[in-house]
Amino acid sequence: MTYEVKSLNEECGLFGIWGHPDAAKLTYFGLHALQHRGQEGAGIIANNDGQLKGHRDLGLLSDVFKDEKQFDRLAGKAAIGHVRYATAGSASIDNVQPFLFNFHDAQFGLCHNGNLTNTRTLKRDLESKGAIFHSNSDTEILMHLIRRGYSVGLLDNVKSALNTVKGGFAYLLMTEDKIIAALDPNGFRPLAIGRLVNGAYVIASETCALDVVGATFVQDVLPGQIVIIDDAGIHIDSYTTEADLKICSMEFIYFARPDSNIYGVNVHTARKNMGRILAKENPNIEADIVVGVPNSSLSAASGFAEESGLPYEMGLVKNQYIQRTFIQPTQELREQGVRMKLSGVRSVVAGKRVVMVDDSIVRGTTSKRIVALLKAAGAAEVHVVIASPPLAYPCFYGIDIQTRQELIAANHSVSEINDIIGSDSLHFLSIDGLKAGIGLGDQICTSYFDGIYPTPLYDYEADYNLGLKAKVSFY
Amino acid sequence: MTYEVKSLNEECGLFGIWGHPDAAKLTYFGLHALQHRGQEGAGIIANNDGQLKGHRDLGLLSDVFKDEKQFDRLAGKAAIGHVRYATAGSASIDNVQPFLFNFHDAQFGLCHNGNLTNTRTLKRDLESKGAIFHSNSDTEILMHLIRRGYSVGLLDNVKSALNTVKGGFAYLLMTEDKIIAALDPNGFRPLAIGRLVNGAYVIASETCALDVVGATFVQDVLPGQIVIIDDAGIHIDSYTTEADLKICSMEFIYFARPDSNIYGVNVHTARKNMGRILAKENPNIEADIVVGVPNSSLSAASGFAEESGLPYEMGLVKNQYIQRTFIQPTQELREQGVRMKLSGVRSVVAGKRVVMVDDSIVRGTTSKRIVALLKAAGAAEVHVVIASPPLAYPCFYGIDIQTRQELIAANHSVSEINDIIGSDSLHFLSIDGLKAGIGLGDQICTSYFDGIYPTPLYDYEADYNLGLKAKVSFY
Amino acid sequence: MTYEVKSLNEECGLFGIWGHPDAAKLTYFGLHALQHRGQEGAGIIANNDGQLKGHRDLGLLSDVFKDEKQFDRLAGKAAIGHVRYATAGSASIDNVQPFLFNFHDAQFGLCHNGNLTNTRTLKRDLESKGAIFHSNSDTEILMHLIRRGYSVGLLDNVKSALNTVKGGFAYLLMTEDKIIAALDPNGFRPLAIGRLVNGAYVIASETCALDVVGATFVQDVLPGQIVIIDDAGIHIDSYTTEADLKICSMEFIYFARPDSNIYGVNVHTARKNMGRILAKENPNIEADIVVGVPNSSLSAASGFAEESGLPYEMGLVKNQYIQRTFIQPTQELREQGVRMKLSGVRSVVAGKRVVMVDDSIVRGTTSKRIVALLKAAGAAEVHVVIASPPLAYPCFYGIDIQTRQELIAANHSVSEINDIIGSDSLHFLSIDGLKAGIGLGDQICTSYFDGIYPTPLYDYEADYNLGLKAKVSFY
Amino acid sequence: MTYEVKSLNEECGLFGIWGHPDAAKLTYFGLHALQHRGQEGAGIIANNDGQLKGHRDLGLLSDVFKDEKQFDRLAGKAAIGHVRYATAGSASIDNVQPFLFNFHDAQFGLCHNGNLTNTRTLKRDLESKGAIFHSNSDTEILMHLIRRGYSVGLLDNVKSALNTVKGGFAYLLMTEDKIIAALDPNGFRPLAIGRLVNGAYVIASETCALDVVGATFVQDVLPGQIVIIDDAGIHIDSYTTEADLKICSMEFIYFARPDSNIYGVNVHTARKNMGRILAKENPNIEADIVVGVPNSSLSAASGFAEESGLPYEMGLVKNQYIQRTFIQPTQELREQGVRMKLSGVRSVVAGKRVVMVDDSIVRGTTSKRIVALLKAAGAAEVHVVIASPPLAYPCFYGIDIQTRQELIAANHSVSEINDIIGSDSLHFLSIDGLKAGIGLGDQICTSYFDGIYPTPLYDYEADYNLGLKAKVSFY
């Protein structure tokens, strides 16, 4: 959530609903709870008796939807919506989802969370057959595959398309009379089903979005499943038999909201557990207080504190108004001590040996800054404990870690990192500790830590082996 | 900070600096740290070799200053700035400070935190002598008094004016060659002095704003003091001998940032202490977990947890994107369970007896909603503990509690409030506990709790005695 | 240009340039001169050494491009641009041109002025082959046809595509190393080539855009021609031998700017001629003064005045600030005489017999209002003379006259219209007079007046024969 | 109206109404017709049963009022409004009128068209007595004088204040129960009274604003008059007996809308007369066509054409979309021939000897550009005729001609100007011709042409005599 200082970005949040007169408005509220999954753009497509209309734009959800009147156009009992994450280059409205496709014989709305691994191959192949893509996203590919399917019914063509795309994906497809949701065979991305009091079904990237609209949790969508929601209710099927759950561990470590549950595991509880285990794995840190980096590391910090018996203190305060602040200190002012996002609380940390708990280290620059900030506030020692293992490998399934070059842990030992960030000691959670903290055994994907990818990498294989993975924008 | 759900509002934040080439920019950063003290409007006046220029507008600081280029107009080595709190009726640019006064023989910039108690009398008197006021604020009065002073030098006229206005005030006055700061004889509002590495002096409503610009704390401005900052450095004087510190206890309870220190007391620590004492005062609550209402009650909650030995859990999650969200659920949707600001975390609270820690109760509506939300998330019992005494009397020194009618504790017993908000038990901190938690003895103002006002109330006296205090807009 | 009160709308303006370091900026200035051809949206694609980047948005050109810095992204020596006309339903950014197509092996920018007559057939056929369209416009079709072409070189595929689309079109296609322009076989839409002092070639919908950028007129693009502009200069070819010029007469009557020349005919001069001939055809109108409806009818009015010997007076004044005025008088206020766009000048028209010259009558509502306005200002008589024949048939080549139902002259005799609009007499220019005024003989399209279409109507044929042409949005 | 290229600016437009349920809305429409008198800012104050509320902002009227809902706050049967002209330095919301003054015992709305000549003296005097001014405008002075008046009733204090201020002024003062309008003793600025069908009275700077709201003209406000409009109807009085009409001739030459009448003279007709007389005064210009500079010179040009017998042609076309265009050609592009505002029509002017009619020459830069533009379009000769005398003296009564230095005719002979602007000959209207054209004899102010000021200049006297008049911003 401290997305300003991290280079980790989730690839989006999804919400869909079928069967409520305020479908678009509920989608808005659902997306509002998923805003942390994407701040670049947002959109909603509503289905009004078979006619699809949409609105989407760049910006936060509250920028895109400012006016109650916007929902007049989005009447209807069903809707899907999307929030999209922020990257510099691709900040074009063309990439903001859901996409609305108008054919002479049908309309479709489509949105996507995740990243395909055979995008390049599929795009080239489709383009050589006359296909024209309008966005940089790989979401459109599914629509092309569906429309070019050889089967008779829509559903068969969707299933066939789902078997053609590879990688990490959660899709919502709105047709004139149903919502079709689907999850990749490894379930890299979370997707949960809920039900409203009136019987309407909702589907969302995280359960916090179900809670916000007052829905009761029904079940997680399972790997390889395809879910159809329409006037007849809900129907769950599988498009493949080769499913093998490998939910992204980063969802637990950093991305998901603490009040969400994924496969029965509460994210706050998992983080607190990771903090506890981290304390167990590092029993010999001599310190006076435990301080979490707000906001994403507070759960882990409280776990660490409880386990270690050290008091849990608010030694760092985050400015709540940083989100849309355009004026930034110059380098010169920064050197004079001007800072905006985080403040160290002198009266809490001065003279203290501080255990600083953070969720992860990407480039190391943020950690370095926070350590310096605590020391400037008088901390006698700063021991950095990270509630996840060293991040050493890129992700190809939907998290924006693009190259090994940017990852400090891919290029430096723990001891070197300790020197670089200026901490007095540095400790990472073990992979086993991570698994124990989450409690889903081997059903989580830990490739960022161990480089073991649960699937072939297709287009990325060659680059990856060369250690020279280019920017995604290349494709 | 959960200002959306409270009806408590601080009356503003001040920042001033003399002696740095980036004075306006530093003022911006300082105000950014004080944004929680006022979200309605913001402004900065810079002093460029004796020429004053300003920019101010309605909105958050980051809305008012969006563009680096705006600071080109605000060149100069000195600046003052202001953030203003939000009320419905007076949302006019005319009221946004600092005010810039252009006379044929001088320029002044003026801003103010606090509330005068003899505004009506002074305004009528001045108007009867031909004065014209341009805003609804009572800030202008000081300028009129200064300009109509009979003394020879500016400083004597300022002192005379400071002795004429009554109530709570912290002023910053920018002239062509100095900044003059002043605090009321009771020091109701906080005001602190800091120094930058380059020797420049800064002055701010809270020390967190000193930290943000890299300034070292020098001292708090004391009641009845007048501070002059200019090229010669800093000079501290008194305009009255009848000073008697009565710093607003609400600054500690709710308003100030946890990383600020006021008269040597860290706000987070004070809150944690209050939480501890609250636990001591209520040793018999049988519960499983402690949950704080984010964000302002987290310190108190951790204190309560430590003292009581109960685990401190994240049972409530606050949406971080709520600040500028315009679309709100209808009453009907709210009844269906749609909510946006706070979520109860089912997996944390379900089946648990919860101690819910909040900082204060104003009308009771928010508490009622949060209790319901925890119960809807499965909490077996909800015991509400409030880290301050019952709020039963209005404030006339700068906090927007306008009438006794709105205050639930002015009209209901604790037991009645417990029924109204639906909690299983309800406990307030005692006034003695509050004093002990803050640790400044009788130097705090507790009039909201005991109705004992440290000064005469002047214009408000009659209304107040009748128990029919009208809206401030009446004056 | 009084586009607010007319229901006649041009389908767009085009501008392209190859060979100037400020290509995008010059495109901006060129489009600025073509703004009257489309106020809904605008865009520019620049070519920077083979890399295409674009910016487009809804709104007037000056809204879309507000900041010099926007042109930093649009560096390069070549650019194409487009302004688009306003319709209610399709006001989506998806329809704003030029379109930028990114293929794995190429980039294209494409924009279009005109209307195809076989859109529906082509779209259905292409969709049945897997094509996906992203806008409602028929512009995309050309790109699909080109990419699906069977020929080896791009140019042959472009030519083949140009022979497949039917109707009215002027295209600009930007590739990595050239601009390709093309005009339909009847040259319904104008398109002119110019040259800058530095040798760069420019191409634009009207010559006024050449003038504005300081270009010298080279020649009109002729029907059926395809023009290639690249580093080697300009190359003009034909993609068909069946060319037959039928330039839209409405360009002369109403759309084009008076300072533009089309096929050697100055628009102002043509209009003045039409006014003269109208006066000759109606020698017996007894009147005192001639008043033109500003701004589009002023040329015709001055011609009428000169020929008739009557003084030309400013009896109607148009408010110049009407363009973006959102507040409109209610029906009740309108009945009380409140009006905003046009004012009758009492001291000019009071007691006078007025010849009111207008360019055309579409629905009759505007004419009725202006006649009433002149009478309210005291005109003794109002004789309406229209500098074009009665508008009785729709256009399928790029002007937004959609159905016969809306056209008053398709449903009423001249005498009936005279009664409806409340004039004392009403006179239209004859078709022969129109031709004589323009001076291009039978090389103009007059189908709106005589129902004789120079081409088959394809998709529209059936609807048209039934007299029940549906809205274009149907397709 | 070609305000972009002139340095002549009117000082504002006024509108007031008493007695209509849609008073604020009608004020909006009235101001819309007066927009040419001021584009910097606009505002409306409405009177709702004695309670005054207002809205004002920088920008065009249509920017300031974008939403019907804004008029909900402006309910009431009476309103006053103002449009303000644009200068660079003073573009602050503080200066946008009408001003709303809130006293403990009364409310006032005040707006002003004109310029006082004893501002400096009065401001210094008032400030020395404790007055505080909030804007740079001299409008506030009247309010201070009224509030400091020694008389018993408001009206007497207003009259007394009107006798204290000197220079050019038209005021509208809204009180709780009436509108008070007043004109300076020379009537430098126009002000007209009208009546609606329902009996409500309206008052406006120009009659075109009466027409637009459907009001019938009643009379011009005469010099030295004070007009009271309230529920009892209208009451006209005088505050001085020393009235002597000297209406600004520039209103007829350039500022006022052609459909306005001032003291019975229609502006278009006056301009056409000036053009005729200009032709009579210069019978020997050998030319082929007459071309007016759009839009303000078209009336004069048609008069010139009729008198001279030369055809009146559209040789110059003005881009109608220039108003809010931010992107401007660089000097380099301008030299390459890029232009945006005016185009010369080659096919009209090529090879022709052109009489170019303009209303006035201020600095000469615009004339030079237009002459060059006509020659670039092929004009064989360009004879410039100006429908006013040489502008050689500043105005102190409300037109923004600040110093003699900027005025080309103050520093150069006609022959020199002819050389500077590059015309083949140059001719100005004589002062007698101007008077004859307007037809009000010596009742017009011609000080810009002859330096004879109808009043003492007060504050400006010394500067003026020294020929070194400083910028107004000095005061």
Blueprint (SSEs and pairs):
Four copies of one chain form a homotetramer.
Chain A (H helix, E strand, L loop, with lengths): L12 E6 L4 H11 L7 E8 L2 E8 L2 H4 L13 E7 L14 E4 L4 E10 L2 H10 L11 H8 L6 H11 L2 E8 L4 E5 L8 E4 L5 E4 L2 H6 L3 E5 L4 E6 L2 E6 L8 E2 H7 L5 E2 L2 E2 H15 L7 E4 L5 H11 L7 E3 L12 H5 L6 E3 L1 H4 L3 E6 L6 H12 L4 E6 L21 H4 L2 H8 L3 E4 L2 H8 L5 E2 L1 H4 L10 H6 L9
Parallel strand pairs in A: 14-23, 17-20, 20-21, 21-22
Antiparallel strand pairs in A: 1-4, 1-10, 2-3, 2-4, 5-6, 6-7, 7-8, 8-12, 9-10, 9-11, 12-13, 15-16, 18-19
Protein name (chains A, B, C, D): Amidophosphoribosyltransferase
GO molecular function (chains A, B, C, D): amidophosphoribosyltransferase activity; magnesium ion binding
Keywords (chains A, B, C, D): Glutamine amidotransferase, Glycosyltransferase, Magnesium, Metal-binding, Purine biosynthesis, Transferase
